[in-house]
Amino acid sequence: MHNSRMGRVIALAAGVAMSCAAMAGQAFAAPPPSLPGDPTPQVVGGSPAAKGEFPWMVRLSMGCGGAMYSESLVLTAAHCLGSTGPNTSITVTYGVVDLQDSAAIRRTSSYVYKYPGYGTSEGGDWALVKLSSPITGAATLPITTTKSFDTGTFTIAGWGDTSEGGSASRYLLKAQVPFVDDTTCRNSGAYYRDLIFNAELCAGYPGGGVDTCQGDSGGPMFRRDNNNAWIQVGIVSHGDGCARRNAPGVYTEVSTFASAIAAKAAELGGGPTPPPTGKVFENTGNVDIPDAGAAVTSSIAVTGLTGKAPATLKAGVDIKHTYRGDLVIDLVAPDGTTYRMKNASSNDSSANVITTYTVDASSEVAAGTWKLRVQDTYSADTGYIDSWKLTF
Question: Which of 223, 238, 268 is the last residue of a domain?
Fold first, then answer.
C-alpha cells in the first residue's frame, strides 16, 4: 500500500531510518550531514523559501499543499480529498511563507473535483479545489503540456514534516531533486513494483537525504522551461518513507493529465482568465549598450490591462549592434522575474537583433513596468537598443 504524502514537505533525513506510516503532512528539514558512504552530501536545498519566491504555493487546511492553477482554482492531489462535489470545509492559505503571518490571504472551498482514475490502474493522483471567491491578481503556476520537461532537476517546496515521523514546518521550505527514470524507480524495491509509468514521475537521490514527506502531498514539483519560467511537472503523491536511500519520491506526471486538468478547470469556470489580445506597448527611445559592460534596461509601462499576461506574450526587439553574438537579452517582468530570450554566442557574427520572441508569461500580472535588459558580454563591438515593444 502506498504511503501518501498528505501534507508533505521536503524531509532531509540525517541517515537514520525512521518509520513513516501514512505520508500525510510532510515538510522540508534543515540540510542533513553527509550520509555514510556518499561521495558528496546528498542535499540540494532544504532551505527556507523567500517571501514571494514561489507566490503560487498554497497550504490546505487538511494538511496538504497545492498550487494556484487560476485565481479561483487550486491544483492538488486526489488522495488529499474525499469525494467529488460541493465542499465548504477546506481553508486555503495563500501569499505567505510563514503560516502564522498576519498577511495571509485565506479562502474557503466551494467545490472539489477528484480525478476518477485515481486508485485504478490508470493512476492520476490530481484534484482541483474551487474557491468560494477568486483571489484577484493571484500568481499562478502553469502546468506543462509536454513530456519534454519531465526530466532534469526539479524544485520541490512545502510545509510538511521536516523528517520522517517528525513534525510539520511553520515556514515554507524548498529543495531540489533529480529525475529518476521509470525503470530505475521500479527496481528500487518492492514498494515501487506497481509504479504506473505513464502516470507517475520519480525523483530523488540514490543516497537519500532530500525528499518530500508527510504534509507535502498535493504540492507542486516544478522546474524552469525554455523561457526560464517556472512550470509544474509533478504533484507530490507518495513514497517509501521520507528521504531514505534508494527510495525516490513519486509524483503525479502532470504532462499526462494536462488536457484533462485544463478541460475540468474550464468546466468548473475557473480556468486561467484569457488576457486581452492585440494590445501593443512600445518604447522607441534609444539606449546605448556599453561594450563588455554592465547590463542596460529599457522600460515599458503597461496600463489598462487586468488579469494575467498571456502564455504567448510577444516581445519585439530592434537592437542595432555590430556583433549580435555578444548580446544577452532578457525580459524582466514587473515582479522582477527574468525570462531569458537570447544567450551570447561567439559563433554568431551577424549584425543586429531584429526579431520577435514569444514568452510564456502566464504566471505574471499583465499591468506594471516591464523591462528589456541587454548586456554586451565581449569587447570590440558596440550598439544600442533602437526600440522594443510588447504585444498582449
Answer: 268
